[in-house]
Amino acid sequence: MNAIDDWTLVGESILRREDAYLLRGQGKFVDDLPVPQNTVHLGFVCSPFAHANITGIDISRAVALPGVIDVLTGNDFVGDILPFKPDIKIEGYREISRPVVATDTVRFVGEYVAVVLAETPYIAQDAIELVDVEYDPLPAVARIEDALDREAPVIFESLGDNVIFKSHFETEGFADHFASVEHVLEGEFHLGRVTGVPIEPRGCLGVIDPVADSYTLWTTTQVPHVVRTAIADHLRLPESIIRVVTPAVGGGFGVKSHIYPDELIVVALMRRYRRAVKWIQDRREELLSDAHAREHIHRIKVAVDAEAVIQAVELKLQTNGGAYANYPFSCTLEATGAARMLPGPYRIRNYKYDVVSVVTNTAPTGAYRGTGQPSCFLAIESMMDRIGRELNIDPADVRLRNLVQPEEFPYVNAVGVRYDTGSYKESLEKALEISGYREYKNRQPKDRLIDGKYRGIGICNYTEVSGTGAPGWRVRGFAKMPGFDSSRVVIEPDGRVAVYLSQADAGQGHYTTFAQVAADRLGVAWSDVTVIEGDTSKTPFGTGTFASRGSVVGGGSIIRCCEKVSAKVKRIVGEMLEIDPSDLVLSDGRVYPLGTPDKGLTLKQVAETAYSMNDIAMPEGEEHGLEATDYYDPPMVTMANGTHVVQAAVDPGDGTVEIERYFIVHDCGRVINPMIVRGQIHGATAQGIGEALMEEIVYDEDGQLLNANLLDYVLPLVLDIPDMEIAHIETPSIDTVGGIKGTAEGGLTGAVPAVANAVCDALSGLGINISRVPLRPSFILAQIDKAAG
Amino acid sequence: MKPAPFKLCMPEEEQEILALLQSYGRDARILAGGQSLVPLMNMRIMQPQVLISLNRCTSLSYINAQGNGIAVGARTRQAEIEESEQIASRLSLLSKAMPYVGVRSSRNFGTVCGSLAHADPLAELPSVAAALDARFQLASVRGTREVSADEFYIGALTNCLEPDEMLRQVLFPALPPNSKSVFVEVSTRTHGFAVVGLAMCASIDSSAICRDVRLAAMGVSETTLRLRSAEAMLEGNTLSAELIDEVSRAATETMNPPHDIHADGNYRKRVACTLIKRALSEVVQR
Ligand SMILES: Cc1cc2nc3c(=O)[nH]c(=O)nc-3n(C[C@H](O)[C@H](O)[C@H](O)COP(=O)(O)OP(=O)(O)OC[C@H]3O[C@@H](n4cnc5c(N)ncnc54)[C@H](O)[C@@H]3O)c2cc1C
Fold this sequence. Notes:
- The complex is a heterodimer.
- Chain A is α+β, with helices and mostly antiparallel strands.
- Chain A folds into 3 domains: 19-26 and 484-632, Aldehyde Oxidoreductase, domain 4 (2-Layer Sandwich); 33-138 and 199-251 and 255-289, Alpha-Beta Complex (Aldehyde Oxidoreductase, domain 3), CATH 3.90.1170; 374-469 and 635-780, Aldehyde Oxidoreductase, domain 4.
- Chain A contains 20 helices and 30 strands.
- In chain A, the strands form 7 sheets. Chain A has a 7-stranded mixed sheet, with helices on both faces. Chain A has a 6-stranded mixed sheet with strand order 7-15-14-13-8-30. A 5-stranded mixed sheet of chain A has the order 18-19-27-28-29, sandwiched between helices.
- In chain A, helix 10 (373-391) packs parallel to helix 19 (746-762), helix 15 runs parallel beside helix 16 (550-577) and helix 18 (674-693) packs across helix 19 (746-762).
- The longest helix of chain A is centred in the last third of the chain and has 28 residues, at 550-577.
- Chain B is of the alpha+beta class.
- Helix content of chain B is 35%, strand content 26%.
- Chain B has helices spanning 14-24, 37-42, 78-83, 85-90, 92-97, 104-109, 112-118, 124-131, 149-152, 228-234, 241-253, 265-285, and strands spanning 7-9, 28-31, 50-53, 63-66, 69-73, 135-140, 143-148, 153-155, 158-159, 166-173, 179-186, 196-204, 210-218, 225-226.
- A 5-stranded antiparallel sheet of chain B has the order 4-5-10-6-7.
- The longest helix of chain B has 21 residues, at 265-285.
- At the A-B interface, helix 3 and helix 20 of A face helix 12 of B.
């Protein structure tokens, strides 16, 4: 089943169906949905303090405002909504809980303190300013080093200190291996805090159905089924009366794979008030309180022999988890992700890591495109360059000597992750070739100065965890993450096809790619397949769309499901034509014996029988209907890979970095739609360039967020993104259905280290080692000045 | 993104605007292109009770030759300036700076006078106006007065307008025919607000002697900063590599630029020095 070799539509760059409406501005996002009469609009009063006790809340001025229905505080929700307490079953994790609205203490700027209910969103906003909250400020900690200070204020008394997660791992005999090697290189790498910034902030519309006594929540999520379960769990409601729907969603990037307090509050309030409830987040709220990511410090030691072969790696990783544990991932997602993925495509047999995550008075952290991988690859890929410089070996050769070699697949890495297939060596070699790396290096002057600018070239090899199944989530302690996704494929009475999928599109092009997969497998026209997803009442249960899993798990499930349906089609037709079903093929909307296309039936004719709309009876023992359901739990992970090569110029007059050329070699196994894959690479790489050069959420020492707007949280714009020269390699997985691997995050993962390494190479003549991103002009110029003395 | 309640007035005549300004005074704000004001109102950083829109008063839209210069009316959009051939040929500094002001979509609405009145320390146009020795014409029911950039700018986001006054037009004196203009800036990304910038115009004769040099920097102090000592050092002298070095150093030595999350003061100083060098080297080369 894994090795499919008769693809027809898979592999074609079919134009995106969704572009017809999205590009015309006709997409229907939460805020575009018609609201029922009498809808209640919410506004949240947010804490202006990073850490404070709430000593009093006076709502009298706010409720006196005409149009205000009510103002509720934390205590009003205590009985109704259980606090968030993600179920993380991993050694070293210490549980903390978060009320949906703060009761006694606030722990970050932006935490919800009260909820205003009003007749319009404008009145809600007016009333927010009239809620008088009295705070008794407490000392706050925002940074990792401050949180670990012995004198630091403790944020959760129950913890005793500010450490929320500690994890240790080492391979057998690590200390001996490490000690026996000649060269030990050390490095320290800091990654700034960033976040996904989807073009559409979050929002919810809750609508009540008094007849069925059921609740529909329209919400901007990547994980509708997980949201529904979380609502049922936290509100103690039967799942069957809750329906979660995602309309068009303007980007998720992992930020929308968490469940947020407002989603629970909207449902609780529509129950309480028996009215529809709507809330639309604004950009400031989004930047203040949606999941942040990164803010990691890697301290790494690499033991390497004289031939530049790595013998052992030791990592000490610290991460800033923020004030609470985001549901369902908590801060361990990135921490374990970074530590476990650091070996990447390299044959690192002796590995040891120690991870410490701290609680601070900053927004809770969680998932964002790349989770952990841009961070650990910045560390290991920068060390590859440093080894090269130290031993006077070209950094590309250092990498070649350490890569897992083609004949070693399937390969199990030091932490136990299986790499089923991969093209690590081929990918690097191809990247060196298309980028003219060797010629560039040969021409490069020692001081790197060409035409008044420092010019350098940087490489990043990466592996990309994708399509994580149940074992992959369990091994990282996520008890409430299913891992499987599911589909229901129906051949309708007219012979056309509906695909119901447990996932939720947020702009990735699911309605195109998944139609392509089903059409390919059922031999129908692509335009005859409708994809339905993002609705818990229509689709079977599943995990959702994040962590590069859509194509692997959704695609895999659809392939298996189509197999089941076509088996039924073949059984029916086999009986009708008295032919062995295995001699039949589905193609061009028909079913016929292989080699004699004019002999068979149309799918429509088969469907008529299946739905009892003609005189031909179903075969004995065969049920009516023409559909199947499939639950596909993929292996622990499937590993995609690739290489980025960047040429950059640094202007010594102002510290700006210009990316002059950008090369990508990319392998995500079986490609369904090359154009859409390219789009994923472009977008992710753009975000990686942002993370490498400019993006950073800045807190001051007291936990005030200084740039909660898009003027000061500097995102790259289109002119900051260079043309990318992309080459594909297609090494199908042997573990996943259809050989598909994920592709959404590699661009970001590859870009951060490749850009940093290019800058580092450019400045190497000055003896500068880059140890921090983002590489803003002011930071770079300070480094240049420091090196000049 | 939900502003506080406000009253919107859409007068069609200039006299009406001035009358409204007089009657509402401090409670009112002028709405020009809205590209700065509306975001501030959406974030409720500004909560004016009355908005007096210029957008229906078409008589305030013009690019006119006036005396020895070109006048730009209060309702003239930035995009119109960007496309004007008259501006390109006679006020090339303004035309060169225009693409740096925001993005095309913000320039379609944003006005030149709105940007000047807003007085953002990182706005390009105040420095352009300073380098061009522009005259700001302020009007109220009491009459009109004219001030220079030096007088108009008081601090970050503050100008000398009285509550009943509007910036009616700005008059840019024409540049001498052999004048050369340069606008340079440095930012973290390619578009939108920069970190430091410099507007310059100067006449250079065939033996590289400079005359009528005017330099104004943004991002190095609360408002645009005319670099008068640098201008004096250059005036009447031959523009050599040594002089460029000396001037750029001297002009920035005493600067004490602000610090923010994008850059510290030292960086701004260093880059101001670089930009002066770049601008001067560019005019020598041309
Ligand atoms: C995405 C984006 C990027 C931007 N990037 C830049 C940039 O890089 N550089 C830059 O300089 N600007 C930038 N801006 C701001 C833009 O240039 C604004 O257009 C300009 O600052 C204000 O002009 P406006 O006509 O929109 O004025 P408004 O926003 O309408 O008004 C701004 C202020 O000036 C007052 N005002 C306006 N006109 C008058 C008048 N005639 N008399 C008295 N007071 C008046 C208003 O009351 C208000 O207080 C950007 C804006 C956006 C949206």
